[in-house]
Amino acid sequence: MDLDNTLIALADTTRRSILERLSQGPAKVTELAAPFPISLNSVSKHIRILERAGLVRRTILGRDHLLALETEPLDDITKWMQHHRTFWTQRLDALESLLRAEDAVAKAKGPKK
Fold first, then answer.
1. pLDDT tens for residues 38-72?
2. How far is residue 64's CA from residue 47's CA, in Å, rounded to a whole number?
3. Torsion of CA 70, 74, 76, 78, to 10 degrees
4. What is the structure's pLDDT at 59?
5. Rg of the chain over all Cα atoms, to the nearest angstrom
6. Is residue 102 packed enough to be buried (19+ CB in 10 Å), middle (13-18) or exposed (0-12)?
């Protein structure tokens, strides 16, 4: 799992838009580039970043480059986030319990003088 490359790839709105389009099915590079007000070369750079992260698979058919979405890196990110969410939720719950216990002890002792 290469979280860094996946997170870098997802950090850009153009790349997220490309992935959104690919979620509907494979597309040629030129089809992916059409809605963007940037050069085909710039879109190709974005696609290379997505490929490096393993989010896009390229198939070359003659002169056409067909791209398809690969979801495994997204699954890996989801698992990582769920693990850390559970970890921090447990830690914060423990902290909340500790603070409540301290408040109860302080109230039982009465007001400070």
1. 999 999 999 999 999 999 999 999 999 999 999 99
2. 15
3. -160
4. 96
5. 24
6. exposed
- Residue 64: give its domain's CATH number: 1.10.10.10
Tally of domains in the chain? 1
Q: In whole angstroms, give the CA distance from residue 53 to residue 62.
A: 25
The one-letter amino acid at 23: S
Helices within 1-113 (DSSP H only): 3-10, 13-22, 29-33, 40-52, 72-109
Owning domain of residue 67: 3-71
Q: Are strands 27-28 and 56-61 parallel, antiparallel or unpaired?
A: unpaired
Q: What is the structure's pLDDT at 87? A: 74
Residue type, 103: D
Query: Does 87 reside within a domain?
Result: no
